[in-house]
């Protein structure tokens, strides 16, 4: 059984020594809501701090690689692929999708969630001077595959 508690009930990292190495992938998303003029500024490329999507993409990738340093009890993982995609939704939102992959003994959900979250926070940071009312919403795992628990996709198991 996997648990973050040891035999004395103390928090500990899960021992994955005996788990099989499998191809694992996770996809997470986040949504940043903002004023229409803020999104127009980002999309036009006219933001005074530069290309918001490019900076957020890099921040998300870097964050995924450092998840084990940010989240207690996460395993340090050698990710083989990290993709962070950003797209304008309507006139007042940005959707972020982060996809992480590896061949390993534990899943990559936390890495995908961290990538999406940090990309969203980066957008907030870069745009807060022009829009303090932005919100970050809907941070969640959309899909995961590999490992003992099998495949999961939002909407299929709910």
TrEMBL record:
Pfam families cross-referenced by the UniProt entry: MoaC
UniProt keyword terms in alphabetical order: Lyase, Molybdenum cofactor biosynthesis
Family: Belongs to the MoaC family.
One of the protein's GO biological processes: Mo-molybdopterin cofactor biosynthetic process
Molybdopterin cofactor biosynthesis C (MoaC) domain segment(s): 13-147
Residues at the active site: 125
MF terms (GO), sorted A to Z: cyclic pyranopterin monophosphate synthase activity
Pathway(s) the chain acts in: Cofactor biosynthesis; molybdopterin biosynthesis
Name of the protein described by the UniProt record: Cyclic pyranopterin monophosphate synthase
InterPro entries on file: MoaC, MoaC_bact/euk, MoaC_sf, MoCo_biosynth_MoaA/MoaC, Mopterin_CF_biosynth-C_dom
SUBUNIT field: Homohexamer; trimer of dimers.
UniProt: substrate binding residues: 73-75, 110-111
NCBIfam families for this protein: moaC, PRK09364.1
Task performed by this protein: Catalyzes the conversion of (8S)-3',8-cyclo-7,8-dihydroguanosine 5'-triphosphate to cyclic pyranopterin monophosphate (cPMP).
The enzyme's E.C. designation: 4.6.1.17
Top EC class of this enzyme: lyase
Catalytic activity: (8S)-3',8-cyclo-7,8-dihydroguanosine 5'-triphosphate = cyclic pyranopterin phosphate + diphosphate
